[in-house]
Amino acid sequence: MKKILSLTLTLAVVFALCAPALAEKNAERDRWLYEKSLECAVIAGKLARSDGYIHSMLSEPSESMRDILEEIRLQDYSQPTAMRIYGFRDSLISLTIVSQMGVSTDEDVRDFALRRTYSAAPMLLIEKAGYETLALCSALTYSTACQLSEALTESVMVILAYEGNWSVAVLFTAYPEQLAVVSAVLVPAFDGPLTNPFIITPEIYREDALKALIAPEPI
Q: Are residues 162 and 126 in contact, defined by beta-carbon separation less than 8 angstroms?
């Protein structure tokens, strides 16, 4: 009994010592994700407002596509109202990939398939909106490469929500040596959390990440 009590007290002390450092690391990660996501979201909005870009990508958009585009253009992507951060269940996805491809499949091929699975995540928010919305959002996707923050070591997806009818899903696909490919995809706004058992990691998920970032410092 004494040994159990001693172990419990030891674990409590360790947790108390580690908790502030973990909270600081999470805050650093969330702030970096917010700043990078916001930068990419603003550029995605610029793509939507560029007649030259739209013409080069879609030639002659249909009337219904132009209506959707006009709605997208009216929104201010520099002022998000909420930020949600999602992680991926790598082990579950990898297991699914191995079961489909076979254990003998080359490791590089499996890694590529894993990252391709990540890229499908934003499309989960568009798939029910119809072909024209999917085609338009695909054309307006902004992609770039960057060096990941030291506080972030895995692939994540950030959703920036706004007062209007559109959100921006920003996918950070991690590669070796802290490199990442970042893709910002305009998606129809939705209420509540995104629930998909294959791509959501509860430990990473932060529903109120933006609120925590802009909250005033305690006095």
A: no
Residues 6 or more apart in contact with residue 211 via CB below 8 angstroms: 82
- Distance of CA 51 to CAs 66, 93, 168, 188, Å? 11, 39, 20, 21
Residues 165-206 have pLDDT tens digits of 999 999 998 888 888 999 999 999 876 666 665 566 555 666
pLDDT tens for 17-73 read 444 544 555 678 889 999 999 999 999 999 999 999 999 998 888 899 999 999 999
DSSP per residue over the chain, as a string? Answer: -HHHHHHHHHHHHHHHHHHHHHHHHHHHHHHHHHHHHHHHHHHHHHHHH-HHHHHHHHSS--HHHHHHHHHHHTS-TT--SEEEEEE--HHHHHHHHHHHH-TTS-HHHHHHHHHHHHHTTGGGGTTTS-HHHHHHHHHT-EEEEEEPPTT--S-EEEEEE-SSSEEEEEEEEEETTTEEEEEEEEEE--SS----TTT--TTT-BTTHHHHHHSPPP-
**What's the predicted TM-score (pTM) here?**
0.77
